[in-house]
Sequence to fold (286 residues):
Amino acid sequence: MLKGNLLRIVGHTDRGADRAIFLKLYRTLVRSKLDYGSVVYGSAKKHVLRALDPIHHQGLRIALRAFRTSPIKSLYAEAVEPSLEHRRIKLAFNYVLKLKSLPRTPCHDVVFEAPLSDFSADTKSEPNLVANTFEHNKNAKINLNTIDNLIVQCPPPWEEHRINVDISLTEQKKENTIEGNENVDKLAKAALNRASCSGKLICWSDLKPKINAYINSVWQKNWDAEGANKLHEVLPNLGEDLHRRGEGAGRKRETAMCRLRVGHTMSGIFLLNAQTFKTPGGNTSV
Fold:
């Protein structure tokens, strides 16, 4: 409640912070609390998990100054903020991949050595973390066998083995030339998009871009099904720069542009014209 009131003060229509700052505050103060422990409670019943959605939606409404009647999926697209369900899938993905790289932890054998049927034997319950993540892993086409183990060695490896440094990127870069920089960028981007590197094992964190791309593709597929949505007509592809066109012009103009795109035409035009009206108490309101 205290954080909600703080966000309302910061998000005042006239003198509040802009959208970019406000969304950072929301993700830091509120969403981080919702994410905490999601790998544990993420296998709860869907109707139980839906109890957290109003908190997420309220934060986005305050950030965007959207009305209660604004479609939920429009809030996600306008704020470029996925639903809590997609967030839980992403965090569970990261947890399982990191756990794969730590074979000495107690949870590793429980997750990767036990038969998958043990996790979904009870048909009355929802699929738990392991079964749900493995199902998404098939769709994302991530090879878990390419993940290297993170084992702390004693003594450190640099005291026992000679470290061979790969200078192929350095050789490609020609000093003070644009061509050399472009070649280095192409090689670096190509390495991020590859599931493996010439049969060598890679760190689990190198697969994060692929996880993000998969989550975005699932989100985009759900957004494509919203053909009748007013915002979908002007924002068919999620993550476009359309939501940034009002930034830097003041909180009131950002609010007006958001309401226009979502579909509240009269309210948006009212704010753009900077009109005011008298309330019964004689105060001026916007």
In short: Confidence is low (pLDDT under 50) at residues 275-286. The two ends are 25 Å apart (CA to CA). The beta strands are 277-278, 284-285. The chain has two domains: 2-96+208-285, 154-201.
